Amino acid sequence: MKLHVVENISGKSSLLVLGLWEDDLLFYRGFSEELNSEIQGCVKSMRCVFHFGDSLVTKVTGKPYTKVMVMGMGKKQDFTLERVRKMMGKIVKSARGLKLFTLEMTIVEMLRGLFSDEELGRAAAEGCELANYDFVKYLSTEKKEKKRLVEEISFGWHGKSSVALERGIGQGKIIASATNFTKDLVNEPASVATPSFVEKVAREVAKNKKLSLSVLNKEELERQGFGAMVGVSRGSAQPPKLLVLKYEPVKSGKCTALVGKGITFDSGGYNLKPTGGIEDMKSDMSGAAAVLATLRACAELGIQRNVIGVMPLCENMIGGCAQKPGDIVKAFNGKTIEIRNTDAEGRLILADALSYTEARYKPEVMVDIATLTGACVIALGYYASGLVSKDINLISGLTIAGQKSGDRVWALPFYEEYQDAMDGTISDLRNMSSKGKGYEAGAIHGGVFLSKFVDKVKWAHIDIAGPAFLMEESDYLQRGGTGAGVRVLTYWLMGM
Fold first, then answer.
1. What dihedral angle (degrees, nearest 10) is formed by the CA atoms of 55, 57, 60, 64?
2. Is the pLDDT of residue 159 over 90?
3. Residues of the chain with pLDDT > 70: what percent?
4. Angle made by CA atoms 304, 402, 55, in degrees to the nearest 5
5. What distance in Å separates the CA atoms of residue 417 and residue 434, rounded to the nearest whole number?
6. Which value, to the nearest 10 degrees, does the dihedral of the CA atoms of residues 288, 292, 297, 299 take?
7. Rounded to an integer, what distance in angstroms lies between the CA atom of residue 312 and that of residue 216?
8. Catalytic residue among 347, 430, 452, 487
9. CA separation (Å) from 56 to 20, 43, 67, 110, 150?
């Protein structure tokens, strides 16, 4: 999709989108008395009172557009950057529904001064690009045609330099494109998106000369002592892989490590997932996909910070060689783990990946991201990811980045009383809590387990189990994979 900034709207597009504050309902009296009369009629009849998201679609005599949309913006004091994204999403989805694929709008100009021009451009571009998406790879030609995307949007911006706005738009397009790339990976069937497939995709990403990729295959993982990760993969015909993608623009500088869970399909193993819980388990590699996309965004944005992305990839399946409840495995750092539940496998592959990353690359900061626990979905639902860390500054930085990006995180308590919940009796650790009934504080206990594989580095864990895969679409996202994690990590790395 092309996004332009124009001095004056031209009348060459099929849809004109106008914004209207709910406390300034006579704003378009000078533009068209016909339109103004229709607006007043809508308000009087209560058909549309132009609260945020209310809209009127009409045809205005004498105007060259197929349709004119008046979008309610609510009250100026309530407007946020997330509302910018939501409004752009509503507009793009409405335009697609109307089968109008070229747009001009005045809304961005009406928001001038509420945010910096760069912030405004970035959020507007993100909202447009994220909404202008559908996973159509497996649809027939006829069905693909019904999901046609918007082709061009022109933002009116009169009487002021557009340099900062256009810079923000450029950033937003990159971030949203990386997020949509993640959606594509997550939405692929698990029979396609195997560890080997993800490696192939990563090699394409690494063709950017700013990036370099290395891969540890099954034999190397076994040789180096990735016992927890190899144990998870034993039931699958697909061999496990550990991908390491590096972005190092600063010579001799310290690095930040991102570690993403990559279970390309999670059956639950012998603790088999039930019907209703297994169908969308292709999404259990959302963390790895987010890390891959974030590194891609870093390279395209030119972020001046060394970043390493580590992606442990495997399937969790059932078979004659599969791991069994009661098995004990030895992790990369030498700690032993009793497998109390084969469906608590994500923490096992992350345990090896975290301890390996710290030992091998000695990062200054390490953040892991994973669809780790159903407990986090119960706690926070689908609108925020869980955040666990002992580092106050890291919690603050990620929380602020989440608020600014709309890809929000919420810090969970990590008190001293939680820290022995994963201790074992016949092994160093268990992969399920040994306290109470075993399921209390599940999202926190998942973080406790991972913390046992982090030594000295500043570390945070983000549980994206809720936001990573939606059952219902939102203003600018769709059902299925959402790309959760890409925006918060990218904003954080940009220093937002």
1. 110
2. no
3. 100
4. 120
5. 13
6. 140
7. 9
8. 347
9. 10, 11, 10, 18, 19
The predicted pLDDT at position 112 comes to 95
Q: What is the pLDDT of residues 381-399, one digit of tens each?
A: 999 999 999 999 999 999 9
User: How far is the C-alpha of 43 from the C-alpha of 36, rounded, in Å?
Assistant: 11
C-alpha neighbours within 13 Å on the C-beta side of residue 282: 19
> Could you give all domains of the chain from N- to C-terminal order, each with its CATH number?
9-170 (3.40.220.10), 193-493 (3.40.630.10)
Is-catalytic flag, 347? yes
Catalytic choice (273, 360, 390, 479): 273
**In one letter, which amino acid is 221?**
L
pTM value > 0.85: yes
